[in-house]
Design goal:
Blueprint: E1 9-10, E2 13-14, H1 41-55
Antiparallel strand pairs: 1-2
């Protein structure tokens, strides 16, 4: 088994997003809009918007 570690996480805080508690996919996170997060449609909103633009559709709400 392997795991992934964020280079911006330092002692549980995100150095990229104002030293807030690290929450992968939160607004400002480099993962936001790139990956699907299970159980959190709020985090998946940007990815869905990008997918809709790529296919020429309006984003669903």
């Amino acid at each position: 088994m392997s795991s992934w570690g964020c280079p911006h996480e330092i002692k549980g805080l995100c150095a990229k997003v104002k030293n807030l508690v690290c929450d992968p996919g939160m607004k400002g996170c480099e993962l936001a809009g790139r990956y699907v997060f299970f159980g959190s449609e709020d985090k998946n909103k940007r990815l869905r918007e990008k997918q809709a633009q790529a296919t020429g559709q309006k984003p669903s709400k």
